[in-house]
């Protein structure tokens, strides 16, 4: 339960959740519910593999995943901000579209409805060994996980600073709490909401890229519900980057413990219950009341 | 406010998903018409569904039957697809996958003059099938026994693993056969068994499959057999990354990581479908459960250029001896 390999698995499991939960947070903080995270993850995964397959460069692939996320979330933004349609409906439609479109394109491009061929993944970060003992020590830290794991953690810090320490963050929160008030103060509500939604697409798209690049291929529906878990993590973390991080780590750890304990003579029903029980305990015991941004889900 | 757009989206979804059927039956000489309904997103999977399709194509070549196919857009359309083909006068309708079990039984009762076949039919204890429905089942435990033998002979640590998809009786058959096969070679061998989950999602989560496998490889396991759909793509990727070995399932997956896939337990869905169509044509069709094992060439293990360096002559000989012994009834393979 406390082995290093379990922690490693937990961190890798948590990484796509962290990206997507941060994305969901930016979107909801601006007042737009984004249940399209699932579809954005999937699209990001697909785009990252497609571009890696074509160029052989997984970093370009990751960037493509990010861009694809932005594109898909742009649909959500146009529908729910400019045309003021119901945000839930738009999100559901995007999820369905992403599922169908990625599988269709997999079929068109690679002739298989199930998965892409394998591609190069990202190589782990490492300083040259010739730099001596210091480099080797640094490598133990920075070379232990795929690079995007570190970027996920960095994103949490950046998101925290952006949200709480910048004018942009303040305005973003303002349009999510009380768009009328923000508007009367001369803040462009639509522009900020676009920023929130597109940012969510970029982050979730990157999460999808991690998911696919770490598996070295695209597999249909490989997001496997992680977009929805990320939404839960965001609520769990009370719409805060650091809170969302801990929620994602908890989910990832519970899942990893569950996987690590299996096959060790403990009844499997009990083991598979662990993630749910941990979630309930944390939700009731630690988190308390979670209040969403007041104008979240309301078109303006 | 919310009702109308939601309804519109649903309707749009239904219209789109029903649009996938190809209504043009292919040319053929006989007037026997076969329809095949795949699972959601099934066709083109280079595995289970494509194998079924190949069986139908072979039958079409050999007997000149007309055929068509239908791929539902979402879960609820399975029954719609079956009914559509039955209503259009097809003589035989084949559902591909255990998820069709309930729907195909219902539709078979409503169309007693049409013949139905369901691949991997999920039979309940004591269940009676209508006389016009054949449930095609495979003795996966027999094929799994063979790959268990190979795993036990190949491992250097005497620790092997199993990754199942959804924790259901169908997958327990793979597990039971594999364990029995490995113990047949090395009675004291250590076998770690894990499952990806308890919902159908457990068959479609490669990221989870990879972590499950990495945890096992980290503990000294060096061969893992997966029976977990595309979750297993992650298991095979983990084998490549950890420099260890995986065993594929359903179709020949040796090519997915050459040198790291020890072998694959193959289910000859094509043979089963071909035989069902032939039986229907020749008038020997019988309703009920039809089981295909090693003796019927319904299951087996894959040997090709990607794994020929991994399977020694000694292993080939041992596994062929075991195959013969199972067919002769000298070895009894447990299925649960």
Features:
A: mainly alpha; 73% helix; 0% strand; B: 336 residues; alpha/beta; Rossmann fold; 2 domains; six-stranded parallel sheet; six-stranded mixed sheet; 10 helices
Percent of residues in β-strands of chain A: under 5%
Instruction: Quickly give the structural class of chain B.
Output: alpha/beta
Portion in beta strands of chain B: 15-25%
* Parts with pLDDT < 50 across at least 5 consecutive residues of chain B: 10-28
> Number of helical segments of chain B?
10
Distance between the termini of chain A: 48 Å
Question: What's the gyration radius of chain B in Å?
Answer: 21 Å
Architecture per CATH nomenclature, i.e. the level-2 architecture of the largest domain in chain B: 3-Layer(aba) Sandwich
Report on this model:
The complex is a heterodimer of chains A (300) and B (336). With 300 residues, chain A is mostly helical. Chain A has a domain at 16-122 and 135-230. Chain A contains 12 helices and no strands. Chain A has helices at 4-29, 37-55, 58-82, 87-110, 133-142, 147-165, 167-177, 179-184, 189-215, 226-236, 241-261, 268-287. Chain A is globular. With 336 residues, chain B is of the alpha/beta class. Helix content of chain B is 41%, strand content 20%. Chain B has 10 helices and 12 strands. At the A-B interface, helix 1, helix 4, helix 9 and helix 11 of A face helix 1, strand 7, helix 7 and helix 8 of B.
Gist of the model:
The complex is a heterodimer of chains A (300) and B (336). Chain A is mostly helical and 300 residues long.
What is the secondary structure topology, with strand pairs?
The complex is a heterodimer of chains A (300) and B (336).
Chain A: H1 4-29, H2 37-55, H3 58-82, H4 87-110, H5 133-142, H6 147-165, H7 167-177, H8 179-184, H9 189-215, H10 226-236, H11 241-261, H12 268-287
Chain B: H1 3-18, E1 33-37, H2 48-63, E2 66-70, H3 77-87, E3 92-96, H4 101-110, E4 115-119, E5 133-138, H5 140-154, E6 159-166, H6 169-185, E7 190-197, H7 206-217, E8 223-227, H8 231-242, E9 245-250, E10 261-267, H9 269-282, E11 288-292, E12 299-301, H10 313-327
Parallel strand pairs in B: 1-2, 1-3, 3-4, 4-5, 5-11, 6-7, 6-8, 8-9, 9-10
Antiparallel strand pairs in B: 10-12
